[in-house]
Specification:
CATH architecture: Orthogonal Bundle
CATH topology: Globin-like
Helix content: over 70%
Shape: globular
Structural class: mainly alpha
Order of helices and strands: HHHHHH
Strand content: under 5%
CATH superfamily: Globins
Length: 150
């Protein structure tokens, strides 16, 4: 049985399309995120918005290119979750990021957006968010068992 198009191919094609249409795609994402969830804006003070957008674009592109490699995705997203504990990211915020990223992709895709893309991006972002949340939980648990330092 032949699979028509893998989820990875579908997402990769869509990502290439939207980046070619608007290389500042993640600027739209951050505008959407900060409008919908202004409480997260202070969490992004470590880098300029341009630097943050570039890093996010690269991270999404890398994850999409490796989405069919569960070991890579798990290792990467566990580390992301652990690291984001230091930034003050709370578990529920991952859903906000996924929601705003899907909204941005849909906006820039325009008439090329469809249910398969919506479902593919949503499922993928929920899955990788769940792994990041596991990493964050592991980091918090590890810290809770460490002796306090003076």
């Amino acid at each position: 049985m032949v699979r028509a198009v893998s989820n990875a191919q579908l997402l990769q094609s869509n990502l290439e399309l939207v980046v070619s249409r608007d290389p500042d795609l993640m600027q739209i994402f951050y505008t959407t995120l900060f409008e919908r969830y202004p409480s997260v804006q202070p969490l992004f003070g470590r880098n300029s918005r341009d630097e943050q957008a570039k890093m996010l674009t690269e991270a999404v592109a890398m994850l999409v290119s490796k989405v069919d490699d569960p070991q890579f995705v798990e290792t990467t997203m566990l580390a992301v979750g652990r690291k984001h504990v230091d930034y003050g990211v709370e578990d529920h915020m991952y859903a906000w990021v996924g929601e705003c990223l899907v909204a941005t992709l849909a906006q820039v895709s325009g008439e090329d957006w469809n249910d398969a893309l919506e479902d593919g991006w949503t499922a993928t972002l929920e899955a990788i968010s769940a792994i990041a949340i596991q990493g964050a939980a592991a980091e918090r648990a590890e810290r809770a068992t460490q002796p306090a330092t003076s």
